[in-house]
Specification:
The chain has 133 residues and is an alpha/beta fold. It has one domain: Rossmann fold. The chain is built from 6 helices and 5 strands, in the order βαβαβααβαβα. The protein has a 5-stranded parallel beta sheet with strand order 2-1-3-4-5. The two termini are 22 Å apart. The model has no long low-confidence stretch (mean pLDDT 91).
Length: 133
Amino acid sequence: MQNSNIFITVDDDPINQFLSKVIITKNVENAEVISFSNVQDAMSFITDEKSSFHKIILLLDINMPQFDGWDFLDQFDHFDIELKKKFDIYLLSSSTDKADFNKAKFYSSVVDFIAKPLTSTSLDIVFKRLKAA
């Protein structure tokens, strides 16, 4: 995993998962996309594989059944600071609710809010932010 551009997507919609993977692999050299359809599986992967991570871009859907993106962020906030530094989390959602945008600001691990579906343009914005950091 060390030499790849690692993306983790957490989204219960298989079509959005597929579209995100296509956009990422078409636009990012040496991309590895790891997809999860629920928060629990993503959390298990992160805690099991944490020592192998370098830098991860995580695209997180907000609205999912059982555990949603907010639940993920609440759990993620309890992780070790060194692990959290390895992640840039982008909320990827179809929500246009201003309350969601405002709530996202309370999570220091959230870099930005991206409208679904992921596009080449929104992916460019992610990489411009990475280069500026």
